[in-house]
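Category: protein sequence paired with discrete backbone structure
Discipline: computational structural biology
Format: plain text, a pair of labelled lines
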Amino acid sequence: MLSSTKVTVHNPAMDTELLRTFLEVKATRHFGHAADNLYITQAAVSARIKQLEIYFGAPLFVRDRHNIQLTPQGEQLVPHAEAILMSILAARQDVARREGAGPRLSIAIRDGLWGSPLEQRFKQLRHEQSDLNLQIQNVAGNTINKKLRDRSLDAAVVFGSSSAPEWESVPIGELTLKLFASHGIASLDEALARQYVDLDWGGGFARFHVRHVAKQWMPSLQTNSLTVAVSALQEAAGACFLPQSWTEVLGGQGIHVVPDAPQFSSPIQLLYHEQTRQAELVGVLRRSLANLSV
């Protein structure tokens, strides 16, 4: 029992989105951040939490502007909410799975990481695990957290690090970004002055850029899409930081690494929920992706 207080519930139906919102607030400790991750307004988050509190007849959070904490009743609800959402997800997977189909693993690849190195690793994995049903999707960094929390993903390949306490974060390799430029651009200064493409590689790269590349620059294009950035270099003279694994492909198109430009490195991590139902398959994936270099 979450509370001994008796309340009259006029609509006993439970919307699972209320539980999803509850767990998001619990994870972020912030109504605004939860709203951003769920792509709804902060007012909607507050309304959903209020509905849950009315439903259970007990406060679920101690509200403070800078530090939202679970109440004892909220702590009690957490495992039940997680179990309900996990059961629904498992049911969807079981219903969707064809009779006789093999195990399924849903994986997100952080936008920018997909290329020949990962493609070859997954090709080998499919060869070794011929009955494995792989679902691989290229996902923007700001949506991976949400997908992992709502269990629509089993694992994610990302770069940088994660501090979420409910996730396991295992280093599996390294991302190295180098400055690529079209023919005729021979130096860092020229690259920054001529059609520079500012590709969003996250906060770590942004800090590196300010410290080691340029404190101020005027990009001709800003994007979070690797495809858009590469197309811009192919279509017009310009420069952009891209994974070193693109060296051979771009070299055949007259796009080269700028020799005097600094390079950025970041660990590649495999993220998955610590209570994943796919622990054995995630272990296989972890071994398949070990020592990855992008």
The chain has three domains: 16-95, 101-174+267-293, 175-264. Residues 42 and 259 are 47 Å apart (CA to CA). Residues 3-12 have pLDDT under 50 and may be disordered. The two ends are 51 Å apart (CA to CA).
